[in-house]
Design brief:
Blueprint lengths: L21 E3 L3 E3 L2 H9 L7 H5 L5 H6 L1 H32 L10 H30 L4 H6 L5 H23 L3 H19 L15 H17 L1 H6 L4 H30 L6 H4 L24
Antiparallel strand pairs: 1-2
């Protein structure tokens, strides 16, 4: 937010001042100590120093960054590697089928398989991390329910069990070889993601599902799970129908991942910081209006 209107400082007397914050790692901003001293001399007062200094990102806000950081640092580079090996594998297969000697080394096929299996795990893992944060700290999540005295212990235990079941099903899916068990564990993993994602606190944006980071990410995760489940069938099928299905579905998944990059950036702008939520969630998002602040505190621009 560009301007703050519910700052803990109370003017005595009215002396507006422009703050020039400095930056620490991970964009953790705090006013410099000399500015705090200057405010004291001008008549400003606050209850504690933390009321003024900790006005930006708090610990819970840094936890929210784990999901996008892992997506950028781990998932998207791995997608690039998997796509690169997939393209080389296909080109080598076409050259070999045409009777030509390919210059592409045969290792590209096993590497594509190995990295593809890792990609499924990272996508599901990052998805679970995002869901865990949302269920606990999201709007109307466990923390908000506890503050309102509405937290259901059974629901908490159920969600925790669903996390364990989902992770265990994914591990079993990696180990399963028979088609029946692969189908069962893939179904359990997908169901676990959907059930956890349906809990309060998850930022779903259901009225814009076609442009929702949650729904796009969930669809991409389910496609990754399906791709892992049919690996054995791809190598056993001589008609190549499973291979064609695998190629088509993963091209769709690649487009979904591109959508994830755009919608994730948008959501980082839309989801407020933890200390901003009481004010932001009182706004009328339909009419794009917010209630007038009752405080007479002067507006402060923290980035000027």
């Amino acid at each position: 937010m560009g301007k703050l209107s519910h700052h803990p400082i109370t003017p005595k007397p009215y002396h507006p001042i422009t703050l020039s914050p400095y930056l620490l790692p991970f964009a953790f901003c705090r006013p410099a100590p000399d500015i705090c001293d200057k405010l004291k001399k001008q008549g400003y007062s606050w209850s504690t120093a933390d009321d003024f200094r900790d006005i930006y990102m708090q610990f819970v806000d840094f936890l929210a960054l784990i999901h996008p950081v892992l997506g950028i640092v781990v998932v998207f580079p791995m997608i690039g590697l998997v796509v690169n090996f997939a393209w080389q594998t296909r080109q080598r297969r076409l050259e070999t089928n045409a009777g030509n000697k390919s210059k592409i080394p045969p290792v590209v096929g096993p590497e594509h398989l190995r990295l593809g299996r890792w990609l499924t795990g990272t996508v599901v893992g990052v998805n679970l991390l995002a869901l865990a944060y949302s269920v606990v700290y999201g709007f109307n999540g466990f923390v908000d329910q506890q503050k309102d005295g509405k937290l259901d212990s059974f629901q908490v235990i159920f969600v925790i069990l669903m996390f364990f079941v989902t992770i265990a099903s994914l591990v079993c899916l990696y180990r399963a070889r028979q088609a029946l068990w692969r189908g069962i564990f893939a179904t359990l993993t997908g169901m676990g993601l959907i059930i956890i994602g349906s809990q309060d606190g998850v930022w779903r944006l259901s009225d814009q599902w076609y442009w929702s980071h949650y729904y796009i990410g969930m669809a991409a995760s389910l496609l990754m799970i399906f791709s892992l489940a049919i690996v054995e069938d791809i190598y056993k099928d001589r008609s190549h129908r499973w291979r064609i299905a695998h190629t088509i579905l993963n091209c769709i998944a690649l487009a979904l991942f591109l959508g994830q990059a755009m919608t994730g950036s948008r959501d980082l702008l839309e989801i407020p910081l933890s200390w901003q939520k009481p004010t932001i969630y009182r706004c009328d998002f339909t009419n794009k209006t917010c209630p007038e602040p009752k405080s007479s505190t002067p507006l402060i621009n923290p980035i000027s």
